[in-house]
Amino acid sequence: MSKVALVTGGMGGLGAAMCKALVKSSHKVATTYIGDDAPAHEWVAKMKGEGFDILAVKCDVTSYADAEKAVAEVVAKLGPVDVLVNNAGITRDGVFKKMTADQWLAVINTNLNSAFNMTKQVFDGMCERGFGRVVNISSINGQKGQFGQANYSAAKAGIHGLTMALAQEGAKKGVTVNTIAPGYIGTDMVMAIAEEVRNKIIAGIPVGRLGKPEEIAALVAYLASDVAGFMTGAELAINGGQHMM
After folding, report:
1. Beta strands 28-33; 54-58: pairing state
2. How many domains does the chain have?
3. Sheet of 175-182, strands arranged across
4. Mean local confidence (pLDDT), 37-64
5. Which of 19, 131, 161, 228 minimizes the number of CB atoms within 10 Å of its CB?
C-alpha cells in the first residue's frame, strides 16, 4: 500500500523535485501552496502531463489553523500522512542594523514556526501507527551563518534543534526525524543571481558547481523510505564541500 507524503512549498524548484522523487518511490504525494489558485492548478496540470499526479492543498503554513485544515484535507483525499517534508521557506535579507521586526518575523514564521504548525498535525498519528518520516529542510547558512541573513540563519538553525528533540521523542515509535542542509542549488532563484556573483559562489564550492535539485530530492526520498529507519536526529550537509563540520 502506498504511503502518503506531504511536502510544504512543493511548487518551487527544490520542492517540485522532491515531489517527483517521492512519486517515483511509490508515494501518494500532496503539496501546499499559497496565493492565487490559477498558477497552482496550472502547476498540477503540468506535473500530471509529466506523469506525476500530485494533490495541491492551499495553506498558509504560518497559520496553525490553516495547517490543521490542510492536513485534514490531505487525510480525507489520500489517507494519513506518513511522510512530512518541511520545505517551505522565504528570505527577507538585510544587515541586522537595518533589519525590521517585520523582516525578522516573516522569516521566522515561514521557515521555523511552520515546521511546528505542520508537524504538530501529523506526529502523534505517526507514533500511534508505528511509522513516520519527518524531513526538515535547513540550509548551509543555518550551519555556518551568513552576513545579512540573521533571520534566515536563525530559523534554519532552529529547524535542526526541532529535529534533534523530536527524533528522541519518536525513536522508539518508528518515527524518524532528520534535517537536510543544502548548499547552493541550481534553482531558478539561484540562477537569477547576477552571473558574476554566481561565479564567485561557485568558486567557493570545492566540487566546482552548483547542486542539482534532483540530488536533494534523492536524499529526501531515501530518508522517507523504509530502509532509513536507523537514521534519526541527523543533519545531512549536501553542499559540494563548501562547509564541512
Report:
1. parallel
2. 1
3. 54-58, 28-33, 4-7, 83-86, 132-137, 175-182, 235-238
4. 97
5. 161
Cα atoms in the 13 Å half-sphere on the side-chain side of 134 = 33
- Three-state DSSP class for 110? helix
Q: What are 223's strand-pairing partners?
A: none
Radius of gyration of the chain (CA): 17
Hey, which residues are catalytic here?
152
DSSP secondary structure string for all residues of 48-80: HHTT--EEEEE--TT-HHHHHHHHHHHHHHH-S
Residue 30 buriedness (CB in 10 A; 0-12 / 13-18 / 19+): buried
191, part of any domain:
yes
Confidence of residue 20 (pLDDT cuts 50, 70, 90): very high
Count of CB atoms situated within 10 Å of the CB of 164: 15
Q: Is residue 172 part of a domain?
A: yes
At 54-98, the pLDDT tens digits run: 999 999 999 999 999 999 999 999 999 999 999 999 999 999 999
Considering the domain boundaries, does residue 58 fall inside one?
Answer: yes
Residue with grid cell 495553506, as numbered in its chain: 59
Ramachandran bin of 4, using left for φ above 0, alpha for ψ from -120 to 50, beta for the remaining angles: beta
Distances (CA, A) of 219 to 18, 107, 111, 136, 201: 9, 25, 20, 12, 23
Is 244 domain-assigned? no
Cβ atoms < 10 Å from Cβ of 168: 12
User: 59: domain range?
Assistant: 4-237
Name which of 11, 12, 7, 34 is nearest 185 in CA terms: 12
Which CATH number belongs to the domain containing residue 187 in this structure? 3.40.50.720
